[in-house]
Amino acid sequence: MTIDTTTYDYTLIKADEGKIFKRKGTEELFGEEIALGYSYYIDGVKLDEPHKDVPEDFEEIDIPEGYYQYYPEENSEENKEYVEFENIEDNEVQS
What we know:
Strand content: 35-45%
Strand order of the largest sheet: 1-2-5
Number of domains: 2
Order of helices and strands: EEEEEEEEH
Distance between the termini: 30 Å
Shape: globular
Helix content: under 10%
Structural class: mainly beta
Number of strands: 8
Largest sheet: 3 strands, antiparallel
Number of helices: 1
C-alpha cells in the first residue's frame, strides 16, 4: 500500500499491484485507490456523525474474479479485455 499526503488536501491511498481495497468489517469494495475523506454512509447505513476515514479502515485484498465485469473503469487501459457492464447476463447487480 502507498500513502500519499504530500500533494493533496486529503490522504490518497493506492493498493499494491493486483489488489483493491475493502472496508474492514463490511463487504464494500473501493477499487485500487481511495481519496480518504469523510464517510456519511457505511455499508449502506447513514451515520449519525460523519466518519473521518483513515487507512486503517481498509484492507487490501486480491482482486476478486469477475471484479472488472462490474467495474471496468477501474482498469480502463485494458478495458477491452473485460466484459462491459451492459453485457453481464449471469450476475445481476442488486440495488
